[in-house]
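Go through this pair.

…
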Amino acid sequence: GSIFQTFTEANQAHKVLHSEIKTDWTLESNSPSSGFVSLTKQLMELDEKLAATPVVQPSQLTTHVATDNIQPLSQLFNTYILSCSADKFLLVHQQAAHERILYERLSIAVDGKAMATQRSLFPATIELAPADAVLLNELLPDLHQLGYTIEHFGKSAFVIQGTPADIETGNEKAALEKLLEQYKHFNTELKLPKREMLLRTVAWQGAVKTGVSLSEREMEGIVTNLFACRQPNASPSGRPTYVEFKREQLEKMFMR
């Protein structure tokens, strides 16, 4: 399905706290002679920083963002959304931002009204290794809240009766297998409660990935819904969702 369907409603978010990280990254040049740096180079360096930023445990993250008429203008490298306001522009990382949007939406659903389920016309049966079957059985109550309808069928088999609306018909089995694999991957890096791990996994799985071209409407949806989040500065794992460039910094670069 379209990624636009997966955005959360504005101002309906569950507060999740993260460790202190630097989220208002800006151009670090203070002098005209050193300030004129290739934007392309800085974007590549940003990718390296994003990859190197460690996944963090939940603690404290202060929300600090002004949302004064920020409008998406273009997409760069099929990875960043260029957005502009009167006194600054932002580079929004499309995957990190979409993960944040989905995570907050999922956090509401898991403790409240279950998300809508897309019933399968032809339910798929999946046979799992014994350890994976035990894991899936433990996750079933929370998965139900997130839009999955899965029934235990025998010792290590399960029947997928329904999935969230953004999972393509016919792809239910592969999606569930990928979810379990990513969950186990996250579990080797972090020691978090099962529910928190599941929320991060489902948000990662559903988010638009880097390298995907977005329409103007999809870019607008990401930017608008990101800044409706309670914690727009960081992805669920604590990586930055955007970088801010202030107008006065650009003026210094151009010796104005």
In short: The chain is about 40% helix and 15% strand. The domain at 3-109+211-253 is CATH 3.30.1540.20 (formyl-coa transferase, domain 3). The radius of gyration is 20 Å.
